[in-house]
Amino acid sequence: MDKTGTHNRSASRFAAWISVLIASAAVAGSCVDRVSAERRGREVFEDSAYPNSRFNAYSCATCHRATPDERRNLVLPGAMLAGSTRRPTFWGGSVVAFQDAVALCFEKFMRGGRFEPSDDRSIALYAYLDSLASRPDAVQTAVPFTVSGTTSPPGAGDTARGQRLYDNACAYCHGAPRAASRPIPTASILPDDTEREHGVAQGYTAETLAQVFVEKTRHGSFLGFAGFMPPFSAETLSDQDIADIVAYLAPTLR
Ligand code: HEC
Ligand code: HEC
Fold first, then answer.
1. What is the C-alpha to C-alpha distance for residues 201 and 251, in angstroms, rounded to an integer?
2. CATH code, domain carrying 54
3. ∠138-144-147 over CA atoms, to 5°?
4. What's this model's pTM, rounded to 2 decimal places?
5. Which residues of 18-45 are buried (b: 16+ CB within 10 A; e: fewer)?
6. Do 124 and 23 sit in the same domain of this protein?
7. What does the alpha-carbon distance between residue 200 and residue 133 come to, in Å, rounded to a whole number?
8. Distance 127 CA to ligand 1 centre (A)
9. What pLDDT shows up at residue 253?
10. Tens digit of pLDDT for each residue in 157-184?
11. pLDDT, tens digit, 9 for 90 and up, residues 222-241
Protein backbone atom coordinates (compact mmCIF):
# COMPACT_ATOMS: atom_id res chain seq x y z
CA MET A 1 0.00 0.00 0.00
CA ASP A 2 1.19 3.51 -0.70
CA LYS A 3 0.59 5.08 2.68
CA THR A 4 1.02 8.60 1.45
CA GLY A 5 -1.21 8.52 -1.57
CA THR A 6 0.27 9.48 -4.92
CA HIS A 7 3.03 11.76 -3.77
CA ASN A 8 5.89 10.34 -5.79
CA ARG A 9 6.94 12.89 -8.32
CA SER A 10 9.11 12.57 -11.35
CA ALA A 11 12.83 12.36 -10.82
CA SER A 12 13.30 15.51 -12.92
CA ARG A 13 12.77 17.94 -10.08
CA PHE A 14 15.32 16.07 -7.98
CA ALA A 15 17.78 16.26 -10.84
CA ALA A 16 17.05 19.99 -11.07
CA TRP A 17 17.83 20.46 -7.37
CA ILE A 18 21.11 18.61 -7.66
CA SER A 19 22.22 20.51 -10.76
CA VAL A 20 21.44 23.84 -9.10
CA LEU A 21 23.48 22.71 -6.10
CA ILE A 22 26.42 21.76 -8.26
CA ALA A 23 26.20 25.05 -10.17
CA SER A 24 26.07 27.09 -6.97
CA ALA A 25 28.98 25.12 -5.50
CA ALA A 26 31.00 25.84 -8.63
CA VAL A 27 30.25 29.56 -8.41
CA ALA A 28 30.66 29.81 -4.66
CA GLY A 29 33.70 27.59 -4.57
CA SER A 30 35.27 28.37 -1.24
CA CYS A 31 34.99 26.48 2.01
CA VAL A 32 33.87 29.61 3.83
CA ASP A 33 30.83 29.85 1.57
CA ARG A 34 30.00 26.22 2.19
CA VAL A 35 30.20 26.69 5.95
CA SER A 36 28.01 29.78 5.84
CA ALA A 37 25.47 27.95 3.65
CA GLU A 38 25.35 25.16 6.23
CA ARG A 39 24.85 27.66 9.05
CA ARG A 40 22.10 29.38 7.08
CA GLY A 41 20.58 25.95 6.43
CA ARG A 42 20.33 25.28 10.15
CA GLU A 43 18.44 28.56 10.53
CA VAL A 44 16.06 27.50 7.75
CA PHE A 45 15.58 24.17 9.54
CA GLU A 46 14.31 26.07 12.60
CA ASP A 47 12.37 28.77 10.73
CA SER A 48 8.57 28.55 10.58
CA ALA A 49 8.62 31.42 8.03
CA TYR A 50 10.48 29.29 5.46
CA PRO A 51 7.26 28.14 3.71
CA ASN A 52 5.83 31.68 3.37
CA SER A 53 2.43 30.53 4.56
CA ARG A 54 0.42 32.55 7.02
CA PHE A 55 -1.24 29.32 8.14
CA ASN A 56 2.01 27.63 9.09
CA ALA A 57 3.56 27.58 12.55
CA TYR A 58 5.79 24.53 12.00
CA SER A 59 9.49 24.48 11.26
CA CYS A 60 11.26 21.30 10.19
CA ALA A 61 12.55 21.15 13.77
CA THR A 62 8.99 20.87 15.13
CA CYS A 63 8.81 17.30 13.84
CA HIS A 64 12.41 16.22 13.18
CA ARG A 65 15.70 15.99 15.04
CA ALA A 66 18.64 16.86 12.80
CA THR A 67 20.96 14.80 15.02
CA PRO A 68 20.14 12.07 17.58
CA ASP A 69 21.16 14.18 20.59
CA GLU A 70 18.54 16.93 20.11
CA ARG A 71 15.52 17.09 22.47
CA ARG A 72 15.94 13.45 23.37
CA ASN A 73 12.92 13.35 25.67
CA LEU A 74 10.47 14.21 22.88
CA VAL A 75 8.64 11.70 20.71
CA LEU A 76 8.78 13.31 17.26
CA PRO A 77 6.75 11.97 14.31
CA GLY A 78 9.48 12.56 11.69
CA ALA A 79 12.73 10.63 11.34
CA MET A 80 16.11 11.86 12.60
CA LEU A 81 17.63 13.55 9.53
CA ALA A 82 21.46 13.15 9.81
CA GLY A 83 22.24 10.86 6.86
CA SER A 84 18.85 11.39 5.23
CA THR A 85 20.31 12.94 2.04
CA ARG A 86 22.02 9.58 1.37
CA ARG A 87 19.09 7.25 2.18
CA PRO A 88 17.83 4.99 -0.63
CA THR A 89 14.11 5.51 0.10
CA PHE A 90 11.91 7.64 2.35
CA TRP A 91 8.58 7.58 4.09
CA GLY A 92 8.79 3.84 4.78
CA GLY A 93 9.75 3.05 1.17
CA SER A 94 6.89 4.92 -0.49
CA VAL A 95 9.01 7.88 -1.70
CA VAL A 96 12.21 7.36 -3.69
CA ALA A 97 13.68 10.88 -4.05
CA PHE A 98 14.96 12.95 -1.14
CA GLN A 99 13.49 16.10 -2.63
CA ASP A 100 10.04 14.52 -2.84
CA ALA A 101 10.26 13.45 0.81
CA VAL A 102 10.88 17.08 1.81
CA ALA A 103 8.26 18.41 -0.63
CA LEU A 104 5.65 16.21 1.02
CA CYS A 105 6.34 17.81 4.43
CA PHE A 106 6.60 21.32 2.98
CA GLU A 107 3.38 21.11 0.98
CA LYS A 108 1.23 18.91 3.20
CA PHE A 109 2.15 19.82 6.77
CA MET A 110 3.57 23.33 6.34
CA ARG A 111 1.11 24.25 3.58
CA GLY A 112 3.89 26.12 1.86
CA GLY A 113 2.57 25.75 -1.67
CA ARG A 114 4.80 24.16 -4.27
CA PHE A 115 8.23 23.25 -2.87
CA GLU A 116 10.98 25.12 -4.71
CA PRO A 117 14.28 23.24 -4.51
CA SER A 118 16.15 26.06 -6.26
CA ASP A 119 15.12 28.64 -3.64
CA ASP A 120 18.24 29.93 -1.79
CA ARG A 121 16.84 28.67 1.49
CA SER A 122 16.16 25.20 0.06
CA ILE A 123 19.74 25.04 -1.19
CA ALA A 124 21.10 26.10 2.21
CA LEU A 125 18.84 23.57 3.94
CA TYR A 126 20.14 20.81 1.68
CA ALA A 127 23.75 21.87 2.32
CA TYR A 128 23.12 21.75 6.08
CA LEU A 129 21.39 18.35 6.05
CA ASP A 130 23.99 16.85 3.72
CA SER A 131 26.81 18.14 5.97
CA LEU A 132 25.42 15.91 8.75
CA ALA A 133 25.84 12.75 6.67
CA SER A 134 29.47 12.31 7.73
CA ARG A 135 28.65 12.23 11.45
CA PRO A 136 29.27 8.85 13.11
CA ASP A 137 25.67 8.77 14.34
CA ALA A 138 24.18 9.53 10.90
CA VAL A 139 21.70 6.96 9.54
CA GLN A 140 22.11 6.39 5.83
CA THR A 141 19.82 3.36 5.59
CA ALA A 142 16.04 3.61 5.12
CA VAL A 143 14.20 4.39 8.36
CA PRO A 144 11.20 2.16 9.11
CA PHE A 145 7.86 3.96 9.12
CA THR A 146 4.90 1.65 9.67
CA VAL A 147 1.39 3.05 9.44
CA SER A 148 -1.41 0.55 9.73
CA GLY A 149 -4.45 1.29 7.59
CA THR A 150 -6.97 0.45 10.27
CA THR A 151 -7.20 1.22 13.98
CA SER A 152 -9.16 -0.21 16.91
CA PRO A 153 -10.61 1.55 19.95
CA PRO A 154 -7.89 1.92 22.61
CA GLY A 155 -7.58 -0.68 25.36
CA ALA A 156 -7.32 0.19 29.06
CA GLY A 157 -4.54 2.66 29.83
CA ASP A 158 -2.30 3.94 32.60
CA THR A 159 -3.08 7.63 33.18
CA ALA A 160 0.25 8.50 34.87
CA ARG A 161 2.20 6.97 32.00
CA GLY A 162 -0.23 8.66 29.58
CA GLN A 163 0.52 12.06 31.09
CA ARG A 164 4.27 11.62 30.60
CA LEU A 165 3.70 10.48 27.03
CA TYR A 166 1.32 13.35 26.30
CA ASP A 167 3.89 15.83 27.65
CA ASN A 168 6.57 14.42 25.32
CA ALA A 169 4.57 13.51 22.20
CA CYS A 170 1.66 15.95 22.00
CA ALA A 171 2.25 19.03 24.18
CA TYR A 172 4.93 20.61 21.94
CA CYS A 173 2.08 21.33 19.52
CA HIS A 174 -1.14 21.09 21.55
CA GLY A 175 0.10 22.55 24.85
CA ALA A 176 -1.39 21.20 28.07
CA PRO A 177 -4.90 19.70 27.90
CA ARG A 178 -7.47 22.52 27.56
CA ALA A 179 -4.72 25.13 27.17
CA ALA A 180 -5.93 28.39 25.65
CA SER A 181 -2.50 29.18 24.28
CA ARG A 182 -0.66 26.45 22.39
CA PRO A 183 2.84 26.25 20.83
CA ILE A 184 1.15 25.58 17.47
CA PRO A 185 -1.86 27.93 17.68
CA THR A 186 -3.77 25.99 15.00
CA ALA A 187 -3.48 22.70 16.94
CA SER A 188 -6.83 21.71 18.45
CA ILE A 189 -7.65 22.14 22.11
CA LEU A 190 -7.53 18.60 23.48
CA PRO A 191 -9.69 16.87 24.38
CA ASP A 192 -12.44 19.52 24.18
CA ASP A 193 -12.48 20.12 20.42
CA THR A 194 -12.60 16.40 19.72
CA GLU A 195 -15.34 15.77 22.28
CA ARG A 196 -17.41 18.62 20.85
CA GLU A 197 -16.99 17.60 17.21
CA HIS A 198 -17.46 13.88 17.81
CA GLY A 199 -20.17 13.79 20.49
CA VAL A 200 -23.38 11.85 21.02
CA ALA A 201 -25.19 14.41 18.83
CA GLN A 202 -22.95 13.41 15.91
CA GLY A 203 -23.61 9.73 16.53
CA TYR A 204 -20.46 8.81 18.44
CA THR A 205 -20.35 6.48 21.42
CA ALA A 206 -17.67 6.63 24.12
CA GLU A 207 -15.85 3.87 22.28
CA THR A 208 -15.93 5.44 18.81
CA LEU A 209 -15.00 8.84 20.26
CA ALA A 210 -12.00 7.24 22.00
CA GLN A 211 -11.06 5.73 18.65
CA VAL A 212 -11.01 9.20 17.05
CA PHE A 213 -7.94 9.99 19.20
CA VAL A 214 -6.28 6.81 17.98
CA GLU A 215 -7.17 7.48 14.34
CA LYS A 216 -5.86 11.02 14.44
CA THR A 217 -2.62 10.01 16.18
CA ARG A 218 -2.01 7.16 13.75
CA HIS A 219 -3.02 8.86 10.52
CA GLY A 220 -2.73 12.61 11.04
CA SER A 221 -3.98 14.10 7.81
CA PHE A 222 -3.60 10.87 5.84
CA LEU A 223 -5.99 8.08 4.86
CA GLY A 224 -8.98 10.31 4.41
CA PHE A 225 -8.35 12.64 7.33
CA ALA A 226 -8.27 16.36 6.76
CA GLY A 227 -5.86 18.72 8.48
CA PHE A 228 -2.11 18.94 8.81
CA MET A 229 -1.24 16.96 11.90
CA PRO A 230 1.55 14.45 11.21
CA PRO A 231 0.96 10.69 11.68
CA PHE A 232 2.76 8.74 14.42
CA SER A 233 4.08 5.39 13.17
CA ALA A 234 4.17 2.10 15.09
CA GLU A 235 7.90 2.79 15.62
CA THR A 236 7.27 6.12 17.38
CA LEU A 237 4.25 5.21 19.56
CA SER A 238 2.90 1.76 20.40
CA ASP A 239 -0.84 0.99 20.63
CA GLN A 240 -0.40 0.83 24.41
CA ASP A 241 1.28 4.26 24.41
CA ILE A 242 -1.75 5.71 22.63
CA ALA A 243 -4.17 3.88 24.97
CA ASP A 244 -2.30 5.44 27.91
CA ILE A 245 -2.50 8.91 26.33
CA VAL A 246 -6.28 8.54 25.77
CA ALA A 247 -6.71 7.33 29.36
CA TYR A 248 -5.00 10.51 30.56
CA LEU A 249 -6.62 12.92 28.11
CA ALA A 250 -10.18 11.64 28.16
CA PRO A 251 -10.53 9.43 31.25
CA THR A 252 -14.32 9.25 31.03
CA LEU A 253 -14.10 7.41 27.71
CA ARG A 254 -12.68 4.23 29.22
C1 HEC B 1 4.39 18.39 11.04
C2 HEC B 1 5.54 17.53 11.09
C3 HEC B 1 6.60 17.63 10.04
C4 HEC B 1 7.21 18.76 9.56
C5 HEC B 1 6.93 20.19 9.92
C6 HEC B 1 8.22 18.32 8.64
N7 HEC B 1 8.20 16.97 8.56
FE8 HEC B 1 9.43 15.83 7.43
N9 HEC B 1 8.38 14.17 7.98
C10 HEC B 1 7.36 14.12 8.88
C11 HEC B 1 6.85 12.77 8.96
C12 HEC B 1 5.71 12.29 9.83
C13 HEC B 1 7.60 12.01 8.05
C14 HEC B 1 7.43 10.54 7.72
C15 HEC B 1 8.23 9.71 8.67
C16 HEC B 1 9.64 9.71 8.29
O17 HEC B 1 10.02 8.92 7.42
O18 HEC B 1 10.38 10.54 8.83
C19 HEC B 1 8.58 12.92 7.47
C20 HEC B 1 9.55 12.55 6.55
C21 HEC B 1 10.59 13.34 6.13
C22 HEC B 1 11.74 12.88 5.40
C23 HEC B 1 12.01 11.45 5.02
C24 HEC B 1 12.82 10.80 6.11
C25 HEC B 1 13.03 9.32 5.90
O26 HEC B 1 14.15 8.86 6.16
O27 HEC B 1 12.09 8.63 5.51
C28 HEC B 1 12.55 13.95 5.19
C29 HEC B 1 13.88 13.96 4.47
C30 HEC B 1 11.90 15.09 5.80
N31 HEC B 1 10.73 14.69 6.35
C32 HEC B 1 12.42 16.37 5.81
C33 HEC B 1 11.73 17.48 6.31
C34 HEC B 1 12.20 18.84 6.18
C35 HEC B 1 13.51 19.25 5.54
C36 HEC B 1 11.24 19.64 6.76
C37 HEC B 1 11.20 21.14 6.79
C38 HEC B 1 11.15 21.78 5.50
C39 HEC B 1 10.20 18.76 7.27
N40 HEC B 1 10.52 17.47 6.96
C41 HEC B 1 9.07 19.18 7.95
C42 HEC B 1 6.89 15.18 9.61
C43 HEC B 1 7.22 16.50 9.40
C1 HEC C 1 3.45 18.51 15.09
C2 HEC C 1 2.31 19.04 15.82
C3 HEC C 1 1.34 18.06 16.43
C4 HEC C 1 1.64 17.01 17.27
C5 HEC C 1 2.98 16.55 17.75
C6 HEC C 1 0.38 16.44 17.64
N7 HEC C 1 -0.64 17.08 17.03
FE8 HEC C 1 -2.60 16.63 17.17
N9 HEC C 1 -3.06 18.14 15.88
C10 HEC C 1 -2.16 19.03 15.37
C11 HEC C 1 -2.86 20.02 14.57
C12 HEC C 1 -2.22 21.19 13.83
C13 HEC C 1 -4.23 19.68 14.61
C14 HEC C 1 -5.39 20.43 13.93
C15 HEC C 1 -5.34 20.19 12.44
C16 HEC C 1 -5.68 18.78 12.09
O17 HEC C 1 -6.75 18.30 12.49
O18 HEC C 1 -4.89 18.10 11.45
C19 HEC C 1 -4.32 18.49 15.45
C20 HEC C 1 -5.50 17.82 15.73
C21 HEC C 1 -5.61 16.75 16.60
C22 HEC C 1 -6.84 16.04 16.89
C23 HEC C 1 -8.21 16.34 16.28
C24 HEC C 1 -8.95 17.28 17.20
C25 HEC C 1 -10.33 17.59 16.69
O26 HEC C 1 -10.53 18.74 16.30
O27 HEC C 1 -11.17 16.69 16.68
C28 HEC C 1 -6.56 15.08 17.81
C29 HEC C 1 -7.52 14.09 18.44
C30 HEC C 1 -5.13 15.16 18.09
N31 HEC C 1 -4.60 16.19 17.34
C32 HEC C 1 -4.47 14.36 18.98
C33 HEC C 1 -3.10 14.39 19.18
C34 HEC C 1 -2.39 13.52 20.11
C35 HEC C 1 -3.05 12.51 21.02
C36 HEC C 1 -1.07 13.82 19.99
C37 HEC C 1 0.10 13.16 20.67
C38 HEC C 1 0.23 11.74 20.50
C39 HEC C 1 -0.94 14.85 18.96
N40 HEC C 1 -2.18 15.18 18.53
C41 HEC C 1 0.27 15.37 18.53
C42 HEC C 1 -0.80 19.02 15.54
C43 HEC C 1 -0.10 18.09 16.29
1. 20
2. 1.10.760.10
3. 145
4. 0.91
5. eebbeebeeeeeeeeeeeebbebbbebb
6. yes
7. 51
8. 16
9. 78
10. 999 999 999 999 999 999 999 999 999 9
11. 666 678 999 999 999 999 99
CB-ligand 2 contact for 105 (6 Å cutoff):
no
Instruction: Among 110-119, 158-167, 201-210, name the one with the lowest average pLDDT.
Output: 201-210
Enclosing H/E stretch for 210: helix 206-219
Q: Is residue 154 part of a domain?
A: no
Give yes or no for residue 173 CB within 6 A of ligand 1: no
- By most ligand atoms within 8 Å of CB, the mutation choice from 4, 63, 104, 223 for ligand 1 is 63
Closest atom, ligand 1, to C-alpha of 129: 35
CB distance 79 to ligand 1 below 6 Å: yes
99 Cα to the center of ligand 1, angstroms: 11
State which of 134, 151, 170 marks the end of a domain: 134
Report the C-alpha gap between 103 and 8 in whole angstroms. 10
Q: Whole domain around residue 34: which residue ranges?
A: 11-134
Pair (224, 184) in one structural domain: yes
Q: Is residue 237 within 6 Å of ligand 1 at its C-beta?
A: no
The total domain count for the chain is 2
